[in-house]
Amino acid sequence: SLLAPAEMSSPSLKTGAYILIGVGALTMLMGFLGCLGAVNEIRCLLGLYFTCLMMILITQVAAGLVIYFQAGKLKEELSNIVRSLIKNYDPSNDDERNLQDAWDYVQRQIACCGWTGAEDWESNEILINKSMTEYPCSCSNSSKDLETGSGFCNLDDAFNSTATYTDWPVHEQGCIDGVENWLKDNLGIVLGVCTGVAVIELLGMILSISLCKNIHSEDYTKVPKS
């Protein structure tokens, strides 16, 4: 049967998606308020700009803490989603085309196969019906198969009856290991980008407060003394 939409979701991932959508909307609103407040010297808008920046910064810190302390749960939920996707992967299913293409892209870019390894693909219904004489093209370690990029490729004529994943010309590394290795290799860059974003947000908060104080001082000096 085709993969039901409910099987492709989890509470944690849904919460993360809603947080990202909320932060994106808040960022757009924040930019508009900041520009309008700075140009027209409106203190209340600059105050809202400061508040939005502070909320975004707090949300980012909270999201980081959730990812850190709930890493095991998130990994388990993501594992279930990916395994369901692999089990029901069907190149002829246009309804799941975008999701399947995204997974093919991951396997090609990371040079991996399956979640923990190529054996995960032995649960795929189409491959079972083909007696495992086909394999996912995006898993292939052959350049000619990677040109196809998605769907299933046929084994050589030598395997014309039955086969197993050990007969496939695919990468041995599972994608979870590939992602973890990538994060380890690029941890410095990731932390640097996060730190840079936080510093920019802090500078924005400081500048908005400074503008508010300047506007307040100018308003005070314009008040006629009795």
TrEMBL record:
SUPFAM superfamilies: Tetraspanin. The chain crosses the membrane at residues 17-39, 46-69, 189-212. Keywords: Membrane, Transmembrane, Transmembrane helix. It is a multi-pass membrane protein. It comes from the Eukaryota. Signal peptide: none annotated. Pfam families: Tetraspanin. It is found in: Membrane. GO terms for cellular component: plasma membrane. Belongs to the tetraspanin (TM4SF) family. This is Tetraspanin. It comes from Nycticryphes semicollaris. The gene is Cd82_0.
